[in-house]
Amino acid sequence: SVTATTTVTVALNVPESIAVAEQTVSLKVGETFTPAVTYTPANTMIANTVFDLKSSDSGVASVSGTTVTAKKVGTATITVSAPQMASDYSVMYYPMSPAPSTTFVINVVE
After folding, report:
1. Residue 9 pLDDT more than 70?
2. 27-to-9, 23, 37, 40, 43 alpha-carbon distances in Å
3. Is there a contact between 16 and 99 (Cβ–Cβ < 8 Å)?
4. Distance CA 104, CA 110 (A)
5. Which one in 39, 58, 67, 91 has a CA-CA gap of 20 to 30 Å to 3?
6. What pTM, to 2 d.p., does this model score?
7. pLDDT above 90 coverage of the chain, percent
8. Rg for the chain (alpha carbons), in Å?
9. Is the pLDDT of residue 97 over 50?
10. DSSP-assigned states of every residue in 46-88
11. CB-based burial, 7-18: b 16+ in 10 Å, e otherwise
12. What's the gap between Cα 20 and its chain centre?
């Protein structure tokens, strides 16, 4: 009988930074917006469609998933961050502390 042993190294590219194409967005009440997100390095393990959003004022601009909805006239800062991912099969492929994040501004107009 023949026995062989090998070592496999898996390199997972964790995002080092996150960017949005828009710095300021103007919306009318009721309109929605989903930011275009880019991770660096480009071949990161997280798709550009996966990110977390948080509004500084949910009365002006609320967040649901990856969509921002204009609620009333005003200004809110939206924080965009890489998600905190869990581990599976004893392989820890995230979290990064802190998760990379950036912001953009939503101006809600009449």
Report:
1. no
2. 47, 13, 19, 28, 32
3. no
4. 20
5. 91
6. 0.77
7. 40
8. 19
9. yes
10. S-TT--EEEES-TTTEEEETTEEEE-SSEEEEEEEEPPPP--B
11. eeeeeeebbeeb
12. 9
